[in-house]
Write a structure and sequence with these properties.
It contains one helix and nine strands, in the order H-E-E-E-E-E-E-E-E-E. The chain is of the alpha+beta class and 148 residues long. Strands 1, 4, 5, 6, 8 and 9 form a six-stranded antiparallel β-sheet that branches. A three-stranded antiparallel β-sheet has the order 2-3-7, with no helix packed on it.
């Protein structure tokens, strides 16, 4: 008789907490289904390039007069850069520029097929020529952000 009461108490304990855990799992599932727990919402926007060239700011716009990707670069290599051009994914900026040592420049790349309020993640390639030696270089980085 005593043994039956123990098993009944154990079963009631498991059923009570089992229902509570089931309710919590259903709530988490509903939040994930509706996108509240989407990791894309919590990822920070970033623009990374190797040391010497810094991407200090960028903006990704899907439509309107500013459509495309605008990137603001700073030269910290110790020499002037000539013929500087960027390529973001498959699109490039149409105009090459010169960036003096310590100077900055803004580049605009027109990207095809951007959809607003989506995640944007593309490679960023900066090609330039060392003004002192005349040697051409290409450095790679990454842009991650949200399309406005």
């Amino acid at each position: 008789m005593f043994r039956l009461r123990k098993s009944q108490a154990a079963m009631e304990f498991l059923m009570t907490y089992g229902w509570a855990i089931l309710v919590v799992l259903v709530a988490i599932g509903a939040l994930a289904y509706f996108g509240v727990l989407s990791p894309d919402r919590f990822l920070p926007a970033k623009c990374q390039l190797p040391a010497g060239i810094s991407c200090t700011d960028f903006k990704v716009v899907a439509s309107g007069a500013e459509e495309g990707v605008t990137v603001f670069l700073r030269n910290g290599l110790g020499f002037d850069m000539t013929g500087v051009n960027i390529a973001i994914g498959t699109c490039t900026s149409p105009v090459a520029q010169t960036i003096k040592n310590g100077g900055t420049a803004t580049f605009k790349a027109i990207i095809c097929g951007l959809t607003s309020d989506t995640r944007f993640s593309e490679s960023l390639n900066v090609s330039y020529t060392n003004a002192v030696s005349g040697i051409s270089h290409v450095v790679s980085g990454q842009i991650i952000g949200r399309v406005e």
